[in-house]
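2024-03-11 09:14:02 DEBUG pipeline.ingest accepted 1 chain
2024-03-11 09:14:02 DEBUG pipeline.ingest length=161
2024-03-11 09:14:03 DEBUG pipeline.predict start
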Amino acid sequence: MRKIKRPNWDEYFFKITKLVSERSTCLRRRVGAILVKDKKILASGYNGAPVGIAHCDRTGCIRLKLNVPSGWRHELCRGLHAEQNALLQAALHGVSAKGATLYATIQPCIICAKMIINAGVKEVVIEDGYPDKMSRGFLKEAGITLRIKGGKHKKSKRKTL
């Protein structure tokens, strides 16, 4: 009998996360995120403008025009981050993120980290880093495991909100 090569769970969810990122309309970075619990996808999100608002691929990017560095002046962006959209989609459909794992193509920024903490997410698995030490510090302080794809899983105690 022939053995079938199956992706492990991280590989499986990252392939889906990367596919989700392809819906992004951001001119600087295409990001995808999914919320997973008990090996089931709860919600997905990608970075882009809110529903009914013109996307940057049509209007241009003010952050590019102003040469704003990555990680700074988030308010100068038309779009929501992928993590925000995943959490909002879960909330919109009445799905709790408590105890879920968030897979993202890049490390969450500090704004997303605060939302992830208050949503009750227990673990964040990323493919790549982001220049935001404060975000990593907040996730650690809140007891949320931050793991790089393929990296070792470090258990941490979750502090009560």
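2024-03-11 09:14:41 DEBUG pipeline.report The longest helix spans residues 9-21.
2024-03-11 09:14:41 DEBUG pipeline.predict end
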